[in-house]
Amino acid sequence: MCTIRCCLYYCSPDHAAMLKIISFLICFNCVFAYFTLSGKCPDKVTLQEDFRLADFYGKWYQSYHYSSDGQQQNNCSTLELLTRPSGIYLNQSRVDRGLFHRFSIGKLDINPRVENAARLDLIFAFKNAPRRLKTRRYPFHILATNYNYYATVYTCEYSPLIDKHFIYVWILSRNPILNDVSKELAIKPLNQIGVDSSKLVKDDQSKCVPKYYEDVPTEPMTFRFPVPI
């Protein structure tokens, strides 16, 4: 995520104004780099029917992924549901650039309507962030799954500022290697969100022992803009 954290309280008015202008220009450029697909997010997307969250529990390996901005910064990614007294959470673990183990934990907002059970949202909370950035909400929609072998999940974010959107797709597997039959079933729903399956990137499982280990949750790599832009 492109952010600038500056303390403006001890700056002169001129310096503070200049810093705000620079921050805006940098973030504006980052928006262009991040939101690369024209128009709004795909509408009328058919999601998994009769989605059962209980059967989605357990560890999932990211076998393939697609990022519409072309960034490929992590490998050995896994997703796993966690039950806590305060609710159900999703732990996104990965190895960034083959060096750092990092993870992001978001709370699942479960849709109460049965027909929209696959239309989940992830809510990330950051205690030390500015007030507007403390709570961040992102879609996490299940396109297809048979629970035992594969799952296809995607998120889409839209920027009204430039009328463009961003898409990230997870092709998940219960095993580190996704079999060919499951892969074919998993990529079928991608046409409806305008994703060419030939652009899927296979996850690198060769560097899953990071050089550095961090046990503090970090911001998720797949959701980079915390507020509407």
Overview of this structure, please?
With 229 residues, the chain is α+β, with helices and mostly antiparallel strands. It has a single domain, classed as Lipocalin (Beta Barrel). It has 3 helices and 11 strands.
Classify the fold: give the CATH topology.
Lipocalin
Q: In percent, how much strand structure appears in the residues? A: 35-45%
Return Rg in Å. Answer: 18 Å
Going by CATH, the architecture would be Beta Barrel
Summarize the structure.
The chain is an alpha+beta fold and 229 residues long.
Task: Describe the structure using short key phrases.
229 residues, alpha+beta, Lipocalin, 3 helices
Topology:
Elements: H1 13-34, E1 37-38, H2 53-56, E2 59-67, E3 74-84, E4 87-96, E5 100-109, E6 119-125, E7 135-145, E8 150-159, E9 164-173, H3 180-187, E10 201-202, E11 212-213
Parallel strand pairs: 5-11
Antiparallel strand pairs: 1-9, 2-3, 2-9, 2-10, 3-4, 4-5, 5-6, 6-7, 7-8, 8-9
